[in-house]
Amino acid sequence: MQKIGVPGVLEVELDKDEDNPEKAVCSVAGVVYNRDTGGPFTGVEVGEVPPGSAFTDEESFQYRATSGPDGSYSFDCSPSGEPGALALKLGGWGSCIDVTRQTIAKDKAQRNVTIYVSDKVMRTLGGVFGLPRNDNCTR
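^ thats the sequence. predicted structure below, dont judge the formating
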């Protein structure tokens, strides 16, 4: 098993499927933090969106997991298809999503994927763009 990345920040391991050692396994695990408080962010939906998605593209959000009391999340993903971007969603954000810069590698097990998101910024975006007359973010 090969590890690459920055220890404690983002480490990527290439795992193999035990039934098929030639087939890579796609999984992502990490912690979501509230940038405003510095603490773990509980109850955030973690998912995947196609590359190039923006905060108003909530219709393309594919739910994968919800962050726990310590902000942790983990999910398995499909090893086929194009790599997606990790995205976050929370009800108070007016259905807007936070699209991270973290790419979901379809052939790797990604561990220690730490994400910081500002609840204040996302609530503001949701309040502006989440209004029914604006864009796609709906309440």
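Strands lie at 3-6, 10-13, 27-34, 45-49, 62-66, 72-76, 84-89, 97-104, 109-117.
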